[in-house]
């Protein structure tokens, strides 16, 4: 089997494994009874990459592998219920065809038990068995990291014995396919956007009272240095710091507020973090910080209680012990507000800190943004980051294992990566201005789930938005003037309301599973509206709704053109750059061919087809704000041609 290819992200010393087509098992279309393959050779889904890596060696989660009639690779599912749920979706057969053969994990004769997490463990590795002949235990105590799971057996007596011990009902294959499964998906991420905003508001509100604590000490009057004031002041009070530059480092180990009164600078000695917080409900506000140390990969000597056997423990120890303007360890409800930090390393670093608020902060990195580490880094933390500016670092905003974080209304400029998420689920990135990044504006990687990227403006960067993982919600963003506007590497995600304009490539699809819902977006002024890697036909329309594509406008009987549009087709992809396009797209032969290819599943392998291209922009106000609206014409115009620019 060929070795897996690797892509190295140079800005965080992380290696990401990219499962290319060369490493996958290709289905023989002529085989009616294929043998099962190794699960690692499938295109698989069902749990996150981190959850998969953290499984104990004796855990054997239920799996299914499916050979489809119109998809060239074997699809693997963690959890039989994951397959059952997916095949119930109305567009599933159009994307994959029908299942030719399904194999499932067979727990008969394996000595299966459940560990403390409810995960199945076995004495011997399970074999594969034909799904149609197996028996299944539903609604037992068995789980995967994604939730309750279905447990298969070839022997009915083994299934009954498992149900007697762990609960549940024994069903056949038909009942499994007809059952209803509660699964969080991209619609959940969409529906939680308002809830995430409310959580962020609550975090801001619960830290607001930290600015109202009574003053107990004034530096220069009651104590000579800030540190002396911290050591002597009662908890739950404010230390007021008058105008001036204070050359010292500060450690805060009790709940209190450091408040600058005027033009205040705290200047470190260039060898460490300047302000270190080790307790909850601390506020640092209205100060400037410089003199930060240059360490961007520490020696791991900070005691943070990390299990050395835990996945990522070495990474965590090294990065937690780096230098920053403000470093916070286990400092819940931290408030950093109205702070300006100049740093050669990082601006704000939080570890093990929940419900923190970073507000109206400015972090300026080194002259070369490939130096340093990050503007604000949250490591196993969560909070709200808002109304702040992060400029000139490798990572403007970086989240690692920091679920439910809200990053909103910030300006992120001139970094290597603007906003960077790893192993971070259920977070919201909203209404940020992200431009001038050397590499990627927003990069979500390592297979997370249910993140939402909404209302951001991403422009003038190499790659605009790369949202990885599954069940991601990408909506109402403006992506402009990039080499690649949107790199789609997700599964089972929703893309809607986005305006993708003026890019060399509007959207590049690299994900192997054709399970994303992409409708209601506008593509204007791109060199190529969309490109794909090797893979199946992707249908970017649903229930009579598609996207607006500059160049696709033809004759119409309603709001959508009467011919499909394929941005990856040799003819269609040139329509928006060719003089006379409005006449060409009305040609009967072209319309007949597009109609056929756009409605026959599997006819355009490695392509995108929109069966209902819109006659006019769907997000007119958002498009107008980009300045590209004059490039969009409608189905009803017969004389207009695109301009050279």
From TrEMBL:
The keyword Magnesium does not apply. Residues 382-552 form the Periplasmic copper-binding protein NosD beta helix domain. Keywords: Repeat. The keyword Metal-binding does not apply. InterPro entries: N2O_reductase_NosL (IPR008719), NosD_dom (IPR007742), PbH1 (IPR006626), Pectin_lyas_fold (IPR012334), Pectin_lyase_fold/virulence (IPR011050), SCF-Subunits/Alg-Epimerases (IPR051550). This is NosL family protein. The lineage of its organism: Archaea, Methanobacteriati, Methanobacteriota, Stenosarchaea group, Halobacteria.
């Amino acid at each position: 089997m060929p070795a897996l290819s690797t892509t190295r992200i140079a800005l965080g010393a992380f290696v990401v494994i990219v499962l290319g087509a060369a490493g996958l098992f290709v289905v023989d279309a002529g085989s009616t009874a294929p043998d099962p393959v190794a699960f690692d050779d499938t295109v698989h889904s069902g749990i996150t990459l981190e959850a998969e890596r953290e499984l104990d060696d004796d855990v054997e989660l239920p799996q299914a592998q499916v050979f489809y009639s119109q998809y060239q690779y074997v699809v693997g599912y963690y959890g039989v219920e994951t397959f059952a749920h997916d095949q119930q979706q109305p567009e599933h057969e159009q994307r994959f065809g029908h299942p030719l053969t399904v194999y499932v994990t067979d727990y008969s004769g394996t000595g299966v038990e459940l560990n403390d997490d409810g995960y199945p463990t076995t004495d011997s590795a399970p074999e594969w068995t034909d799904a149609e002949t197996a028996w299944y235990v539903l609604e037992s105590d068995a789980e995967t990291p994604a939730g309750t799971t279905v447990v298969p057996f070839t022997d009915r007596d083994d299934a009954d014995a498992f149900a007697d011990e762990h609960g549940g009902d024994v069903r056949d294959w038909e009942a499994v396919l007809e059952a209803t499964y509660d699964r969080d998906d991209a619609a959940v991420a969409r529906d939680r956007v308002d809830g995430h905003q409310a959580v962020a508001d609550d975090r801001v509100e619960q830290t607001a009272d930290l600015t109202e604590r009574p003053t107990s000490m004034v530096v220069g009057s009651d104590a000579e240095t800030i540190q002396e004031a911290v050591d002597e002041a009662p908890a739950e009070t404010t230390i007021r710091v008058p105008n001036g530059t204070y050359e010292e480092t500060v450690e805060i180990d009790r709940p209190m507020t450091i408040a600058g009164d005027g033009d205040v600078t705290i200047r470190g000695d260039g060898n460490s973090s300047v302000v270190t917080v080790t307790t909850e409900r601390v506020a640092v506000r209205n100060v400037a910080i410089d003199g930060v140390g240059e360490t961007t990969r520490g020696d791991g000597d900070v005691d943070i209680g990390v299990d050395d056997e835990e996945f990522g423990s070495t990474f965590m120890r090294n990065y937690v012990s780096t230098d920053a303007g403000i470093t916070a360890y286990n400092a819940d409800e931290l408030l950093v507000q109205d702070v300006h930090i100049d740093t050669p390393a990082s601006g704000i670093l939080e570890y093990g800190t929940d419900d923190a608020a970073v507000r109206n902060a400015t972090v300026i990195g080194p002259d070369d943004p490939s130096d340093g580490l990050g503007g604000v880094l949250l490591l196993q933390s969560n909070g709200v980051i808002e109304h702040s500016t992060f400029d000139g670092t490798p990572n403007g905003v970086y989240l690692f294992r920091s679920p439910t974080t809200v990053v909103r209304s910030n300006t992120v400029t001139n970094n290597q990566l603007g906003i960077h998420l790893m192993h971070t689920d259920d977070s919201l990135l909203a209404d940020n201005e992200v431009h001038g990044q050397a590499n990627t504006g927003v990069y979500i990687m390592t297979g997370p789930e249910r993140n939402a990227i909404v209302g951001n403006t991403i422009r003038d960067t190499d790659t605009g938005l790369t949202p990885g993982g599954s069940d991601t919600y990408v909506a109402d963003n403006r992506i402009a003037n990039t080499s690649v506007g949107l790199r789609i590497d997700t599964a089972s995600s929703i893309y809607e309301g986005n305006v993708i304009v003026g890019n060399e490539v509007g959207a590049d699809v690299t994900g192997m599973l054709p399970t994303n819902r992409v409708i209601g977006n506008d593509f204007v002024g791109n060199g190529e509206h969309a490109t794909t890697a090797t893979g199946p036909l992707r249908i970017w329309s649903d229930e009579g709704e598609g996207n607006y594509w500059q160049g696709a406008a033809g004759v119409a009987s309603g709001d959508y053109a009467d011919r499909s549009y394929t941005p990856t087709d040799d003819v269609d992809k040139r329509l928006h750059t060719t003089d006379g396009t409005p006449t060409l797209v009305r040609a009967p032969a072209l319309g007949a061919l597009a109609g056929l290819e756009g409605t026959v599943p599997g006819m355009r392998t490695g392509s995108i087809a929109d069966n209902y291209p819109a006659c006019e922009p769907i997000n007119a106000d958002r498009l107008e704000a980009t300045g590209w609206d004059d490039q969009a014409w409608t189905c009803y115009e017969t004389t207009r041609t695109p301009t050279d620019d």
